[in-house]
């Protein structure tokens, strides 16, 4: 997989250090010292929310963390119309849900590879790029092992054979503990937007992260480099960027929508966008 990652991303540099202009030790301290509002979700899972200054801006972060033991993870893509992430979670009977990968805005048609409960739901129509250079894959009949892997379309048949669920997205943010830096001036990477992330820690626990954005003074959003930095600071050794912007939403059965989705342009929990797929989590 490491050779594949190098082949896929000619514009990609793997660096042990962070770009000097993007983050500072002050940012590390701010995140380490942030006051988190933490809620026990049961079974060792927690939801955490904070608002703190990072990168010279105000940031609002929402996180759900759950252990490998006692939880199952599944990619869902139901038939029919797209729906809010919270509804995806409710309909699945899940305890936690986060939005999935990229899709056509007008038709809500998914455009990345989707494997749900052993069935290929979408083969992926996006051209190879860093936006599809990773996959969140779930192994085992009970769906208890989440793996974040670099991949391209040539890997999809193998993934479909080996995993129960999988969702292609990108770019990869962290791989083998190293932050991945993308040398591009594309505003998708350099602009501050809402971001959604799935990642894993060395103990196998899974972290779902949403960084709110488009609310100046409350939630500025993050660049891809800043998102990777936050993911690494949260202890992720593998992390994958999911669809962001107005799609970013993180929900729990106990608390409802944790973050502040942007589609209604209000800093509340009501502005979810309808999405075709998502990642849902069950306590077993």
UniProtKB/TrEMBL annotation:
Residues 93-282 form the Phosphodiester glycosidase domain. The keyword Signal applies. Keywords: Signal. It comes from the Bacteria. Residues 1-22 form the signal peptide. InterPro entries: NAGPA. This is Phosphodiester glycosidase domain-containing protein. It comes from Alistipes dispar.
């Amino acid at each position: 997989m490491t050779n594949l990652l190098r082949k896929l991303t000619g514009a990609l540099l793997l660096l042990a250090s962070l770009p000097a202009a993007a983050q500072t030790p002050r940012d590390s301290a701010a995140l380490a010292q942030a006051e988190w509002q933490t809620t026990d979700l049961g079974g060792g899972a927690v939801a955490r929310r904070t608002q703190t200054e990072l990168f010279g801006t105000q940031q609002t972060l929402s996180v759900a963390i759950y252990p490998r033991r006692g939880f199952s993870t599944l990619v869902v893509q139901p038939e029919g119309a797209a729906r809010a992430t919270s509804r995806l979670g409710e309909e699945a009977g899940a305890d936690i849900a986060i939005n999935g990968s990229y899709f056509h805005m007008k038709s809500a048609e998914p455009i990345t590879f989707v494997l749900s409960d052993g069935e290929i739901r979408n083969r992926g129509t996006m051209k190879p790029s860093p936006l599809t250079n990773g996959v969140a894959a779930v192994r085992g009949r009970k769906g208890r092992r989440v793996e974040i892997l670099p991949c391209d379309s040539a890997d999809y048949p193998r993934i479909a054979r080996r995993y129960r669920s999988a969702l292609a997205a990108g770019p990869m943010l962290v791989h083998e503990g190293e932050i991945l830096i993308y040398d591009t001036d594309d505003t998708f990477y350099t602009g501050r937007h809402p971001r959604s992330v799935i990642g894993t820690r060395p103990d196998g626990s899974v972290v779902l992260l949403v960084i709110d954005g488009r609310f100046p003074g409350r939630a500025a959003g993050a660049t891809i480099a800043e998102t990777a930095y936050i993911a690494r600071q949260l202890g992720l050794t593998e992390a994958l960027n999911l669809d962001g912007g107005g799609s970013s939403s993180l929900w729990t059965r106990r608390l409802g929508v944790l973050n502040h989705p942007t589609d209604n342009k209000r800093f509340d929990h009501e502005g979810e966008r309808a999405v075709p797929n998502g990642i849902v989590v069950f306590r077993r």
